[in-house]
Design brief:
Shape: globular
Radius of gyration: 20 Å
Distance between the termini: 35 Å
CATH class of the largest domain: Alpha Beta
CATH topology of the largest domain: Dihydrodipicolinate Reductase, domain 2
Length: 346
């Protein structure tokens, strides 16, 4: 049994980790960490856990936790994990960080976009970027995983095959993205109140969203050159889900069959990436509550551009589900273990 500790278990991503790991036959949660609810029963924070989890929330003490568990998940805001990690802790336990602390390899870019000083930059290069379908081998051999952001996961998986195979011009990529409100976290913010979000859609972080450099870095690896994109996220009045629509110019004339063959080359054996049938656009409702990512494309011959689309649950494949998938890889388990939930509908 893998002994698990969760720092930040009372946030949305943390609670989703609990939900998934409770159904994992090789994992046992022994530490429910929380800064805000110390000494409260976990089910008192999330009533859906009544008579399921009787544990009490404990402090976010990584040093003590490292003595008790095999893996620590940190579902916390930027900066906290980096401030807690040190060589002594990493020598005892594996860490899967759901924040952005180790995702971006250039510390100057991280500090510029996030506006904070990185507390442990010496571990950045060691951390494996945990986009499982692309970096599986690196994840197998690391003790520190940087779990990808939700927008970068959906964007990269939708675009990566065509960029890797050189079918699209990397200088022309535009990403239009939409997310449910849980992507903003559980802390109280005026902009996320019901009356502010309901019956409304808005762009935010225009030309300045913090996931931009993360997406650019991953696409640059695929292209073999520096990639700069326009990325515009939008907040929509739903609990869960991410939908991205990406546009790029084709380098040459291609057929549907040629492009489909490229996607199949990369994803035909990937359990969680579903390349949809011709003419079927991804929808967030068909992936809700699951670790699946649905992708597809449309060739626009009139403009010589291709539209790439992806949909996923931001709390599952965009956070907790991918973190569990990374844990499975790190410990040599079946990658899909604990993650075969069928998408919920309605």
């Amino acid at each position: 049994m893998i002994k698990v500790g969760i720092i930040g278990s009372t946030g949305y991503a943390g609670q989703e980790l609990v939900r998934l790991l409770l159904q994992h036959r090789e994992a046992e949660i022994i530490w429910y960490g929380s800064k805000s609810y110390i000494d409260k029963k976990y089910y008192e924070v999330f009533q859906n856990m009544f008579q399921i989890v009787d544990a009490t929330c404990l402090a976010d003490d990584m040093e003590q936790l490292a003595e008790k568990v095999d893996v620590i998940f940190t579902a916390t805001p930027q900066g906290l994990c980096a401030s807690l990690v040190n060589e002594t802790i990493l020598s005892k336990v594996k860490i899967i960080d759901l924040s952005a602390d180790y995702r971006i390899k250039d510390v100057n870019i991280y500090e510029s976009w996030y506006g904070i000083t990185h507390a442990s930059p010496t571990f950045i290069n060691e951390a494996a970027y945990g986009l499982c379908e692309i970096n599986r081998e690196q994840v197998k051999h690391t003790r520190l995983v940087a779990n990808p952001g939700c927008y970068p996961t959906c964007s990269t998986l939708s675009i990566y095959p065509l960029l890797k195979e050189g079918l699209i011009d990397p200088k022309t990529i535009i990403i239009d993205a939409k997310s449910g409100t849980s992507g903003a976290g559980r802390s109280a913010k005026v902009n996320n109140l019901y009356c502010e979000v309901n019956e409304n859609i808005k762009a935010y972080g225009v030309s300045s969203h913090r996931h931009t450099p993360e997406i650019e870095e991953q696409l640059s690896y695929a292209a073999g050159e520096t990639v700069r994109i326009n990325f515009t996220p939008h907040l929509v009045p739903m609990n869960r889900g991410i939908l991205i629509t990406a546009y790029a110019s084709l380098k040459e004339e291609v057929t549907y069959e040629q492009v489909k063959a490229v996607y199949d080359k990369y994803y035909d054996k990937e359990f969680f990436v579903r390349v949809l049938d011709k003419g079927v656009a991804p929808e967030t409702r068909w992936v809700e509550g699951s670790n699946y990512v649905d992708v597809n494309f449309v060739i626009d011959l009139r403009t010589n551009r291709i539209i790439m689309m992806g949909a996923m649950d931001n709390l599952v494949k965009g956070a907790a589900g991918q973190a569990v998938q990374n844990m499975n890889i790190m410990f040599g388990l079946e990658e899909t273990m604990g993650l075969k939930q069928v998408p919920m509908f309605p």
